[in-house]
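Record type: monomer structure entry
Structure origin: computed from sequence
Chain ID: A
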Amino acid sequence: IKMATCKCCDKKLGLLVGSNKLSDEYDEPMCDGCFYKFKTQLNIVEQSKDKYCLEINYENAVATIKKCNFSEDSTNYILSFAESLKQTVLDKLQQDIVNKTEEALRVEKEAEQKLQFKRLMDNHLMTTGYYFDGYRIKGYNGVISGSVVLGTGFLSEFGASISDLFGSQSELFSDKLETARELALKNLVKKSAQNSGNAIIGIDFDYITFSNNMIGVVANGTSVVVEKIEQGEG
């Protein structure tokens, strides 16, 4: 059986002399002594973080390989692998740039959408009536609801019982109801904005009590699109 020999120095490889290869494609065996003369520099090429560093590291690797004084065939073999490694790293760096650009654009788009949505919600007109002075209704987006359920808690119920005993208003319950009402209204505006509305008419509230000290508040209304009537228009 013919024993494998090192690509660079023709040393026989076996149990006492390790065998290494550059890659699955560049699989010519090399002894430890030859392989580690340039392997560290190739690792540095592979770990390059940008194109400028890649060029510097590649040039250093080429210089290191040429200083090893291998045969011309062996030197060209290793240089060929170094060039293919450089291209692989370059392709990866370029793909990373594309990925980062796409991610940045996605984040920017999401931020812009959130900002537009917030502006729409902040500028939403609301009324319990069915029109706004100085505005005309251009379109109706349908009836919408915004609901929320909050727990009053044992202490809230206990405090309410005490205050009811003395005939005074329960501030604990009032605060809970006010919080639930505001959240329900916020959800209502969100629904209207999602339906491309910029106003809500006919707003009313339904209050529901559940077991286990739970309060439910449902805000109802009609999402509409309104526009300001300019001066001089009939």
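Annotation 1: The CA atoms of residues 138 and 226 lie 5 Å apart.
Annotation 2: The chain is about 50% helix and 20% strand.
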